[in-house]
C-alpha cells in the first residue's frame, strides 16, 4: 500500500493560531488537493491536537472533530471507501464523537457505488461499534438505497427486522418509510400486503400523501386491478389529499394499455377540473392507447392538441406515433408523418428511422425503404447498429443477402458492432436464398466476433438446415443446444419436426411434439407446428391420425388457420372415395369452435368457407351470427357476408 504524503510541518505550525472553523477548512482543502483517493493511510498529524490546546472542547466534541466530518464527506463523494474505513477506525481509537449525518452521507455513497449490502452492514455497526444512535432518518436512507438497487426482498427483510426488533425501539416509521415499503411490496407483486400497510398507516399516526397513493395505484394497475386503483383516486380526494399529475398519469396509462380510451379521456377531463395540467406523460399514454386501437388519425389530432396546449412532444411521443403507423401496415403514412414533423423542427432519431425502414421492407416497399435510408444519411442522421440492422433485415427479406452483407461490412468499418439480430437476419437471408455455405460463414463470423449465439440464432440455423435437407447437421446443432443449456423455443422444435417429416420420419417428429406437450407447459406447439404434422399425416393418407392431431390442437386452445383448412380440403378432395368438397367438415369445425367460445377461430373458418363457396348450414349461420355479432350489427354483418359471397 503506497504511503500518503505527510502533512506539511509549516502548515501544522501555522494552524495552531487559526480559529477552529478556519482550521477545518484548511484541513479539507489540503485533503482534497493532496491526498490520494485510493488505498492510502491517513497522516495522524492532521487530527492530533497540540498539547497546549488539548483541553479545548466544543460541548461534547473535541477540537478536530469537524475535520473528521469534512473528510468523511470528501471521501464519500469520491467513493474512497478504503480511506473511509481507515478514518472510521482512527476516530474510534481516538474516542471521537460520531454523528448520524456523517453516516447518512456514507450510506448515500454506498448507494451511488451500487453497494447496498455495505450500507446495511454500516447501519448495524452504527450503534454496536461506533455508539451512534440510529434514527428514522438513517433508517429511511438505507432503506431507499436498497430499494433503488432493486433488492426489494432484502429491503422488506431489513424493514421488518428493524421495526420488529427491540434494539431499534426508538425508530418509528414515518410517511417516507411507509412509501418505501409500499413501493417494495408492489414491485415484488405483493399488492395485497401493500394495501394492508397502507391501511395501517393511520395506526402509527402517519398520513398518506400523493406519492403513497400513486405508488399503490401503480402496483394495482400492474396487477390488472384498475378499478381498485381508480377508487383510490376518489378516496384520495375524500381524505383531503390533492391528486397530482403522477396519480392521474398512472391510471390513464393503465386504461390506455387496456384499450379503455373512454375512461381514460374522462380522467383527462377530471384532471383539468382539479387544476392538474396534462403533461407529456399524459399525452404519450393517450397517443399509445389510440395507436394500439388503430385510431391513428385521432392520435395525430391529439398531437396537434398537445402542441396547442404548449406541451412539447418528446422522442417517445413521435416514436410511439410512427411505430403505430408501422404496426398497422401504414409505413408510408408514417414516413409522411415524420416529414411533417421535421418541417415543424423535430428531427427524427434512429429509432423512428429503424421502425419505418423495417416497416417499409415488411410491407414489400423496399424501394421506399432504401430512399428513406438515403434521405436519413443526407439529413445528417448517422445510422447506428439499430438502423443498420433494420436495413440488413429488410434487404434479406427482399432476397438480397449479398447487398445486405455489404452494409454489414460498412457498418463494421464505421465502428458499429453487429449484434445477434444483425447476424441472424443475414444468416436467415442466405438460407432463404439457398446459399447454405454463406449462411454457415455468417454463423462462424458471429463466433469469431464474440457475438453470443442466443436461441433465435440456433433456431434459424436449425430451420435453415432442415429446409435444405441437412437433417444430420441440424441434429448436431440441436444436441449442441441441449448440451449448452440453451432454451429451446417453438421455432426450433417446429423446425426439427419439419425436418423429420420431410425425411419421412414422422414418428420421430411426433416424439418431439409430445415432448413439447408434456415436458414444458410454457412451450406449447403453435399453429405452424400442428400444420406440419397435419400435412405429414394427410400426405401419408393417415387421415385418422390427422384428426387426432386436430382434436389435440383444439383441446390445447390453438385455433386452426387458413393453411389448416387447405390441408384437409385437399385431402378430402384427392384422397377420399368418393371425393368430398369439405363443406361438412368445415361446418362442424365452426360449430365446435363457437361452442368453445373461440369466436376468432370460428370467424376465420367461415371466411375460408365463403372464399371457397362452401356455404355454412343455416343452423350454423344462426349460431355464428348470435355469437359473433352484436344485435345492432346483425343485419350489417349478414349484408357484408352476402356481398363477399357474390364477389
From TrEMBL:
Question: What is the residue range of the signal peptide feature?
Answer: none
Q: Where are the PPR repeats?
A: 174-208, 209-243, 244-278, 279-313, 314-348, 349-383, 384-418, 419-453, 454-488, 489-523, 526-560
Spell out the InterPro entries in the cross-references: PPR_domain-containing (IPR052308), PPR_rpt (IPR002885), TPR-like_helical_dom_sf (IPR011990)
What SUPFAM superfamilies has UniProt attached to this entry? HCP-like (SSF81901)
Domain of life according to the entry = Eukaryota
Q: Name the keywords, alphabetized.
A: Repeat
Which PANTHER family does the UniProt entry name for this protein? PENTATRICOPEPTIDE REPEAT DOMAIN CONTAINING PROTEIN-RELATED (PTHR47937:SF8), PLASTID TRANSCRIPTIONALLY ACTIVE CHROMOSOME 2-LIKE PROTEIN (PTHR47937)
Specify the protein name. PPR containing plant-like protein
Question: Which species is this UniProt entry from?
Answer: Medicago truncatula (Barrel medic)
The opening ranks of the lineage are: Eukaryota, Viridiplantae, Streptophyta, Embryophyta, Tracheophyta
